[in-house]
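pasting for the record
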Amino acid sequence: MSPDTTPGVDPEQIRAECEAVIMSGVFGGYDAALGYFARVKAVPGMAVVGPVMAETFADAIQRSATAAGAVLHSGVADVRRFLPSERHAYARLPAGIPLETRLQGRGIHRAMQRHAHAYVTARARGEDERASAVLNRLSEDQLGQLVFMLWATAMQAARAALAHLE
């Protein structure tokens, strides 16, 4: 079922919430934004809202990267510049998490970075089938992880765009 035909799901409202989540992270701090993101992500289910969220975050990354002058010769956002640092992400984990779990998390982080790069690049080039293929390869849980990676990347890109304007 697509978001456009799911009862009680308004894609435009989801897009507006996603834009607000990005700005919350830029101006309100990471922890406040993380709580806001969790509430937005909890709307009916990732299989329904995830693709709309992914589109919104990917478009925001492209828009912010362009504003920051961080685009490649092809006009596509230099996504790698804004991807969250693996080291920084894992520095935030509680000390009691077992090493094996941390290593699995690092693998997931790297995979989501690759998927985020592929998805944003495909969207920026207008390759909708390729972008959809990236999403379709993921389970619902993985889609949630990708949306999180896209959100974090969109925040970093928005911060760079604001810094570029100052």
